[in-house]
Each structure stands twice: as structure tokens, then as C-alpha cells.
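sry for the spam today, last one i promise. C-alpha cells for design, 181 residues
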């Protein structure tokens, strides 16, 4: 590297970022609910992008390697003590505890709650939230689908799309959440 390049990276913020000479912004708390392949990647990438990472797994003490990527692991939403920086991503829409966990997340100050799932299928959490007496305004706060529309198919791709969308939300950018087929 020449002296000219060193001087340029010291004064140009974009260069400093490219060379990792700039500390990451605190993006708040990323919460993955349920151990799943997507949760593992979400927590792994989330930690590296500036989130404090939390895993909530109510069903088992066995959090396998997903727990290794979390700064904290809890068995309930209440135990996690979520604040207004929390962005909650439910990574399995087939679990029996889905409704209760989404309801509990909506009762926190969390700024964003989303449930993973295909936009082509009726979301299972809606009926369960209604059964639990959750107000319609709260139900409407649940994002689904989650992640940017990049055509992701694998767990790492879904995690990247989700994180990109959450970062866009945090930075108040449009991000591309629109789905049209």
C-alpha cells in the first residue's frame, strides 16, 4: 500500500469502512425465536453485522450450535427483557407455541416482530393470536413474509435477506420488502 492510499483511507469514511477501520453501529437486539437452520445463520450473521444476538427456545434446553452464536439464550420472551431496539424473528411457523410467543413479543417494546413463512400460504399465527384475544392492531404489526425479496431458498440466503431487511428498517431505508410473485 502506498502512502497516498494510506492517507486516502484515513480521510475517506467509505475507505475506512472498506478496511474495517470504523466501528460498527449498534443495531440493537436481534432475537431469533426457535432453534432452526435459519436461526443459526441469522444469529451468526447478526453478530457480525452489529446486533446483540438473543435466541429464545422454549421447547428444550438443547439449543445445539445455534446457542453458540447468541449472546444470550432464554426459554421465554419475558425472560429476554426485550427493549425498543429488539427486532424479533420467529424462524419456525409450525411450532405449537407460535401464537403465545408472538403474542408475548407483541407485548414487549420490541420495534419489529416478524414470522418466517411463504407469502403463498395463510399465516398460522393469525388465527392463534385471535384465539388468544390479541387485538387486531397488534396482529397487524406482525411482518410476514420477512426479508428482502431476493428469491432466497436456503437457510443462509433467508438469513441474509432477513438481516438486510432489518438493517434497512433500522436505517429507515425502503430496502425492498415488496413481494409481487
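last one done:
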Amino acid at each position: 500500500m502506498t502512502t497516498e492510499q494510506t492517507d486516502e483511507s484515513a480521510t475517506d469514511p467509505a475507505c475506512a469502512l472498506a478496511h474495517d477501520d470504523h466501528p460498527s453501529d449498534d443495531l440493537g437486539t436481534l432475537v431469533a425465536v426457535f432453534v432452526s437452520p435459519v436461526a443459526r445463520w441469522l444469529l451468526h450473521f447478526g453478530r457480525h453485522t452489529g446486533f446483540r444476538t438473543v435466541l429464545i427456545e422454549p421447547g428444550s434446553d438443547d439449543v445445539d450450535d445455534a446457542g453458540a452464536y447468541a449472546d444470550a439464550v432464554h426459554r421465554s420472551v419475558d425472560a429476554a427483557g426485550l427493549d425498543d431496539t429488539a427486532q424479533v424473528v420467529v424462524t419456525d411457523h409450525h411450532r405449537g407455541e407460535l401464537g403465545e410467543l408472538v403474542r408475548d413479543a407483541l407485548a414487549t417494546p420490541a420495534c419489529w416482530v416478524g414470522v418466517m413463512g411463504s407469502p403463498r400460504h395463510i399465516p398460522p399465527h393469525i388465527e392463534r393470536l385471535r384465539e388468544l384475544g390479541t387485538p387486531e392492531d397488534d396482529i397487524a404489526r406482525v411482518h410476514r413474509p420477512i426479508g428482502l425479496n431476493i428469491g432466497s431458498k436456503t437457510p443462509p440466503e433467508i438469513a441474509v435477506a432477513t438481516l438486510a431487511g432489518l438493517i434497512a428498517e433500522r436505517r429507515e431505508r425502503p430496502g425492498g420488502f415488496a413481494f409481487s410473485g
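The domain at 24-170 is CATH 3.40.50.720 (Rossmann fold). ok im logging off now
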